[in-house]
Amino acid sequence: MKEEKITKKRKGAIRVRLIDSITAILNTLCYGLIWYMYYVPRLYKPFFRKGNWFIIFLFFLLFVAFSRIYGSYRISVSRTAELIYGHFLAEIFSNFFIYLIMLLINRRLLNPLPLIGTMIIEFIISFFWCKAAHKWYFRTFDKQRTAIIWNEREDLDKLINEYGLNNYFHVEKNISVRESLSEEHFGINDYDSVFLIDLNSHDRNSIMEYCVAEGISVYLTPRFGDTMMWGSKPTHLLHLPIVRVDGYDPSPEFLFLKRFFDVILSTLGIIILSPLMIGTAIAIKAHDNGPVFYRQFRETKDGRLFELIKFRSMRVDAEKDGVARLSTGENDDRVTSVGRVIRRTRIDELPQLFNILKGDMSIVGPRPERPEISKQYAENLPEWPLRLQCKCGLTGYAQVYGKYNTTPRDKLLMDLTYISKPSIVEDMKIIFATVKILFTKESTEGVKTGQMTAESSGQNVN
How far apart are CA 255 and CA 424, in angstroms? Predict the structure, then answer.
C-alpha cells in the first residue's frame, strides 16, 4: 500500500511537471522567434550564436521564476481564472525585464512594439494552456481521498466549503483528534492525504509519524512555536544535532540592503506616481472639501508609535466618537464615492511611501496596527507583540497570502512566518506577489458585523 501511494505520487508529479513545461517552452519559442527575426539584425553589436541562446534562456528563466511567484503552475489547487491571471502577470514582468536587459545590451532604444505583439500571442497561448491543463488534470487525477483531524476549530466548515477545499480534495472523513486516537491506525490508513487542524504537538507528532511511515501526505496548520522554529539554525553540540532558536536577528548586510531598497523604491514610487497622487488629492478635496489625508498613530518595531498617512476615503465624521469600527467593505456607508475607487485600487495607501522614505515603515513587513487594537488582540493572543520584532511594512506576507478579513490569529501566524526567515529574496517575492492581489476582490473584502480582524478600524483597509 505504501509503495503504491509513493509510486503514484511520483508518476503524477512527473506528468504534471511535463505539462507545466509546455507553456514555458511555447512562450520562450515565441520570444526566440521575435528575437532572431526582428531584434538580432538591429543590435548595435550582434551576438554570436551562444549569446543569442543565452538571451533566450534568460527569458525562459524569468518566465519560470515569475510563474512560480504568481502560482501559475499550481494546477491542482487553483481555479482556471487564477492560473490565467498568474500567467498574464508572469508574461508582463518577464517581457518587461528582458526588454530592459535588451536595452542595456544594445545601449540604444529598441522598438518595443514587436515584443508587445509577441506578448499578446504568449497570452493567447497561455490562456488556452490554462484551460486545457486544468481540464486535463482533473480528468486524469482523482481527487485525493482526504481525512481532516481537528482539535478545536470553529471555522472548520469555512475551511472546507468557503475556501473550496472540496474542489481539490475529496474530504471523506472529518473527526476530532480524540476520536482519531481511539481508532485503529488513527482511522486514516486508506486515505491519500490528511489535514491536521490545531492539534497539540504530542498528538500531531504521533499522527504525522504514522502518516510519513505509510506514505500519506500531511497538511497541517502551524502553531506559533512552529513559525519560530522555521528560522532556527542547525548546529552540533553535545554529540547531538541541535537547533538554536532566536528572535528576529537579521544580518547587518540584510538591514542595509533592506533600507537601501526602501529608499530607492519609495523615492521612485513618489516620483512616478506623483501625477496620480495629485489627481487623487484634487478629487478628495473637490468631493466634500474635507482634508485630503487621514493620519493615525500606529505601532511599528518594538511598539514605537508613528503617524501613518493615507488618503482619506471616509466621511470626515466617520469616527467622530473616537471609537474604532470595522470596515464592512462595499456596504460601509461611511466610505465616500471617491473612497470606494481609491480603496479598490489601493491608491489610498500611496502616501505611506513618505512614511517609508522617512524610515517609520518598510516596503515589506507586518502591517502596522493601532495601539488600542493591538492591546485588545494581545488579551486573547499573548503572542501578538512578537509581530513587532521588525519594522512594519506597506505590504507583507499576510497581505499577499491572506485576506482583509482573515482572523488575527491566522494573520499573526503569517507575520511570524515572514519574520522567521528574513531575506531580500523573500521581500522581492512579496513585492511582486503584491501586484497579483491589487485587483482581486477578496483581498479587500469587508468583515461581518462583530467580526474581529487583524486589520481593523475605520480608515484601515489593506
Answer: 9
